[in-house]
Amino acid sequence: MAKDFIIAGIDIGTSNTRTVIAQQIRGEQQLRIVGVNVTPSIGIRRGVIINVEDVAKTINEAVEGAERMAGFPIKQAIFNIGGSDIGFASSKGVIAIGRADGEVSEDDINRVIGEAQIIQLPANKEIVHVIAKKYRLDDQDNLKDPLGMKGVRLEVEALVIESSSLQVKNISKAAYQSGIEISDLVLEPLAAAESVLTKKQKELGVVMINIGGGTTSLAVYEEGELLHTNILPVGAGHITNDIAIGLRTSVEVAERIKLEYGSALASGVSKDDGIDLAQLDSKEDDVISRYHVAEIIEARLEEIFSLVQKELKLIGKAGLLPAGAVLVGGGAKMANIAELAKDVLGLPIQVGFPLGFGGILDKVDDPLFATAAGLILWGGKQPEEKRVGLSNIKAFKMFSRPTGDAVDKVTGWLQRFLP
Ligand SMILES: Nc1ncnc2c1ncn2[C@@H]1O[C@H](COP(=O)(O)OP(=O)(O)OP(=O)(O)O)[C@@H](O)[C@H]1O
Ligand SMILES: [Mg+2]
Asked: Domain 86-164 carries which CATH code?
């Protein structure tokens, strides 16, 4: 019988936690988004969980909002993992092909990737992704997908991405406390890239830059392959703090100044333009220079793009990505950001929107939803046995989430992190 699937993604961000619930309907190519929620985050600093209880509360609120919209509850979700404490290692795996006729099967590919996972891990790190870069089958090298080919010995060269054990542990605890099972963890920039980059851009060479509240993450692709990724501990929230310090206003007023009057390019703002702070807060009476605000914003964003440029230099790709840079996250919505990014990076720039959904809801059609939408698309690629059928979900019972109910359903290595 035709069966629909439910996929939920929870993007725990420094500023906001976003939940998206999608339905995969048999016979339809694209996922349909049926539930969306944005909840301000508490308990997170620069992408790192600093208070598990607060994050659990945030997840609860974010999930309940999205469930209410979807009309059914969720039991499990794919979560992002952020925080700049990530590590990388190159690794190799080798196996003998299992089948007697020498044809490479799915199982061989999983086994060889499993071999590549066996590395000496630093004490405080966990593997979150093992990304196959290329395969070698006997003497045929540089293979992208050896499935179905014939040979004896299969080798993989892989990029292992590690995250802080503490962060993995804290996400697991927070999810557990909110009664949601983690079906997968995806590094934030890889999730964001999943939803906004096209196959063609990844083939040509592109960098996805996600400017969040507390972090800026990037993912570089070329010839369809992930070349590099990183999470830097500076984001658009730092602009707000800079404005608050520079103009001696409260953080709330600084945030409003940034959103309502901000520009990434001071040169485009008249020096005579003033902002009457009394309009934003009755306790204020100053009129401040809009040009000065733009100078503050430009300085911080220039720093952020210079840090990204440093990463690109590190891999020899500065100025050399024909499909340019795709900007997402809240910071990408700053007025004139594309001009500034172009100046610093020397690349064509565009602002990215989530792609690949049928009937996308207006709310999700936004650079702010790149990560959450990417988590859903990531889930859509999982094998069927890992997915949840709509028929498995009981009738909609109003939010008596059974705390801790998820524990015995958590599989694999995540289990170790549960209390
Ligand atoms: N229209 C806008 N113009 C400028 N900045 C914006 C706009 N909308 C949101 N922002 C800023 O974007 C930031 C939040 O972005 P986002 O929601 O992507 O971050 P996050 O995912 O919570 O954080 P992180 O990914 O760093 O953990 C805030 O600093 C906010 O002020
Ligand atoms: Mg984010």
From this structure: 3.30.1490.110
Residue 396 scores a pLDDT above 50: no
Q: Please, which residues have CB less than 5 A from ligand 2, an ion? A: 13, 212
* Ligand 1 site-directed mutation target among 218, 241, 368, 375, most atoms within 8 Å of CB: 368
- Predicted confidence at residue 404, as pLDDT, reads 37
Q: Say yes or no to pLDDT of 11 above 50.
A: yes
Q: What is the pTM of this model?
A: 0.91
In this structure, is the dihedral angle defined by the CA atoms of residues 34, 39, 42 and 47, taken in order, positive or negative?
Answer: positive
Residue 394 is given by DSSP the state P
215 lines ligand 1 (CB under 6 A): yes
Which CATH architecture best describes the domain 5-84+166-190+356-417?
2-Layer Sandwich (3.30)
Q: Are 351 and 326 in contact (CB under 8 A)?
A: yes
Atom 8 of ligand 1, nearest CA residue = 330
Residue 416's pLDDT band (cuts 50, 70, 90): low
Domain residue extents for the chain: 5-84+166-190+356-417, 86-164, 199-352
Contacts of 29 (CB under 8 A, 6+ apart): 358
146 touches ligand 1 (CB under 6 Å):
no
Domain 199-352 has CATH 1.20.1250.20: no
Per-residue pLDDT, averaged over 381-400, amounts to 48
Question: Tens digits of per-residue pLDDT, 133-171?
Answer: 999 999 999 999 999 999 999 999 999 999 999 999 999
CA proximity to 37, closest of 16, 20, 54, 23: 20
Task: List, for residues 215-260, the tens digit of each pLDDT value.
Answer: 999 999 999 999 999 999 999 999 999 999 999 999 999 999 999 9
Pocket test for ligand 1, best of 15, 80, 366 (most atoms within 8 A of CB): 15
Kindly report the average pLDDT of the chain as a whole number. 90
State in Å, rounded, how far the first CA of the chain is from the last one.
Answer: 39
Confirm or reject: Cβ of 299 under 6 Å from ligand 1.
no
Tell me if 236 CB under 6 Å of ligand 1. yes
Cα 47 to Cα 9, 14, 299: the distances in Å are 17, 5, 22
Q: In whole angstroms, what is the distance from residue 225 CA to residue 159 CA?
A: 11
Residue 131 region by backbone torsions, left for phi larger than 0, else alpha for psi between -120 and 50, else beta? beta
Q: Is 393 left (phi over 0), alpha (psi -120 to 50) or beta?
A: beta
| Topology alike, domains 5-84+166-190+356-417 and 199-352 | yes
